[in-house]
Task: inverse folding
């Protein structure tokens, strides 16, 4: 659209020649916030409250987005999109946005699904759309930036609340947003290093454009994107079909697809819901969340007293002494409810603002059922867990390996498996194919970001951790575990790090998730990074 915003026709709409602009009959208007307010008042009154205070909250969120969030976007999304140069320091830019979004979460999302509650409002149409772009895999691959768990949940809720037509605008058609972001994907081996390279080279010439064509989610020869090669040793991952998709036809599709990409299946099999429940396999898989919900008792948890007291008006120690604090698993027994009953009670606590975030993936709710009122830790996990543990359910797994020079780990996840949201997956990726043919494959409901068909390890180290959990394999006998031990990493540390603790990641003593440091890198690079981080964390 080079120069299109300066044509006589566009200048008649907006003499400041800026986008966005609009024309409704003879009425012309510009600036996104003004346009949103006008459209809401004229055509969608429910999206902009008539109550002065409720409207003011919307205006506050919009102003924050237009000023504060916009400044962050210029340092992260604009360079990825090709609209501006990269920042002087990508790490600082990422940290700045993360801190800003943390404030946004606490102010606008602490007690509601969306900015204005449970229904879309004008602030969501702006902020939700911006963060949807920021959640695209290209942003992470180019800059290393990743949304927090709460912001990603907000993006998912925003997308699911949209009309089908609006969803298609983002994900389907020749001019869709997804296609634009796909076209900005960096070459294999790029990632956050690509941003650094752009800073050093001063241009965007190193970017690789993805194959053209409408990303419709349907088979299209233009979307059958080849995976890129890299060099990084033998990659080994753990893959499983989730319970909702564990049909014979999906198993056949998964095996055929993996083998067609040159991926060797070393072992395959099923694990029943009863086994998963008894051995708490899903609890250890989602350890960071399940630790608070099913594995540890409340008195074993590190609860920040100030946050608990601010929400509930009593000290954490006093709550423990009252005998009314339970993890989600024990809470179900105390309240006499199943997983869905807990989910209902937890939602009621959330709706009545009786919920507090105590840390990443760590919540406490004052949950009520009949005449009982208990403090429950991570009550939301039970319904998630029950999908894997209910009688008759199963996962079907594949223990796999492949040469990273044929398929990089990033391409394995992005193009062989597909993104978390199956609507964003390439047509020939497993999640994309399962979504397209879900009825013919025997699924009961259409896949979504949670029930997206399949899971796969995010890194060689997560592959090691998942094989140890699901297959009960010993570290010293594991292909990647043996390499770590031979390189000098203590087996106890390998086991400790397999549940994704916060570890020191730089010389300044900054801590972050070990899993996040290793995502989408091939085995040899992962090995080197783990040994380096292990030395950094020596006592």
Result:
């Amino acid at each position: 659209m080079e120069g299109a915003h300066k044509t006589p026709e566009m200048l008649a709409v907006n003499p400041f020649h800026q986008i966005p602009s609009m024309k409704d009959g003879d009425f012309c208007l510009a600036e996104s916030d003004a346009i949103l307010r006008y459209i809401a008042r004229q055509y969608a009154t429910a999206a902009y409250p008539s109550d002065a205070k409720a409207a003011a909250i919307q205006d506050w969120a919009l102003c924050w987005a237009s000023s504060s969030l916009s400044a962050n976007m210029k340092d992260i999304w604009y360079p990825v999109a090709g609209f501006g140069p990269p920042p002087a320091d990508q790490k600082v830019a990422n940290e700045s946005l993360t801190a800003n979004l943390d404030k946004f979460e606490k102010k606008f999302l602490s007690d509601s699904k969306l900015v204005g509650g449970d229904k879309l409002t004008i602030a969501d149409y702006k902020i939700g759309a911006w963060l949807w772009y920021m959640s695209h895999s290209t942003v992470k691959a180019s800059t290393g930036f990743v949304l927090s768990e709460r912001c990603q949940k907000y993006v998912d809720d925003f997308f699911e609340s949209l009309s089908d037509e609006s969803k298609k605008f983002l994900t389907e058609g020749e001019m869709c947003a997804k296609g634009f972001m796909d076209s900005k994907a960096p070459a294999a081996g790029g990632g956050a290093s690509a941003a650094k390279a752009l800073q050093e080279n001063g241009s965007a010439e190193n970017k690789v454009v993805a194959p053209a064509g409408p990303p419709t989610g349907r088979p299209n020869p233009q979307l059958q994107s080849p995976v890129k090669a890299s060099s990084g040793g033998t990659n080994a991952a753990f893959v499983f079909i989730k319970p909702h998709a564990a049909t014979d036809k999906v198993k056949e599709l998964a095996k055929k697809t993996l083998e067609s990409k040159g991926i060797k299946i070393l072992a395959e099999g099923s694990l029943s819901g009863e086994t998963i429940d008894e051995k708490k396999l899903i609890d250890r898989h989602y350890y960071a969340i399940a630790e608070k919900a099913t594995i540890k008792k409340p008195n074993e948890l590190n609860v920040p007293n100030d946050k608990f007291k601010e929400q509930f008006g009593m000290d954490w120690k006093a709550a423990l002494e009252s005998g009314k604090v339970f993890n989600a698993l024990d809470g179900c027994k105390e309240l006499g409810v199943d997983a869905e009953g807990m989910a209902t009670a937890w939602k009621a606590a959330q709706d009545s603002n009786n919920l507090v975030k105590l840390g990443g993936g760590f919540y406490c709710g004052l949950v009520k059922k009949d005449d009982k009122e208990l403090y429950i830790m991570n009550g939301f996990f039970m319904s998630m867990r029950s999908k894997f543990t209910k009688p008759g359910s199963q996962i079907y797994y594949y223990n796999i390996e492949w040469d990273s020079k044929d398929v990089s780990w990033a391409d394995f996840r992005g193009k062989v498996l597909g993104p978390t949201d199956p609507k964003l997956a390439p047509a020939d990726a497993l999640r994309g194919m399962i979504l397209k043919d879900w009825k013919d494959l025997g699924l009961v409901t259409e896949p979504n970001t949670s029930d997206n068909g399949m899971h796969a390890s995010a890194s060689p180290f997560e592959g090691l951790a998942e094989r140890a959990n699901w297959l009960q394999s010993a570290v010293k006998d594991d292909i990647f575990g043996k390499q770590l031990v031979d390189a000098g990493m203590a087996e106890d540390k390998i086991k400790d790090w397999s549940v994704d603790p916060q570890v020191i990641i730089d010389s300044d003593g900054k801590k972050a998730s070990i899993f996040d440091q290793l995502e989408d890198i091939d085995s040899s690079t992962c090995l080197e990074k783990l040994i380096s981080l292990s030395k950094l964390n020596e006592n």
Summary: Confidence is low (pLDDT under 50) at residues 1-5, 187-231. The first strand starts at residue 21 and ends at 24. The two ends are 57 Å apart (CA to CA). The first helix runs from residue 8 to 13.
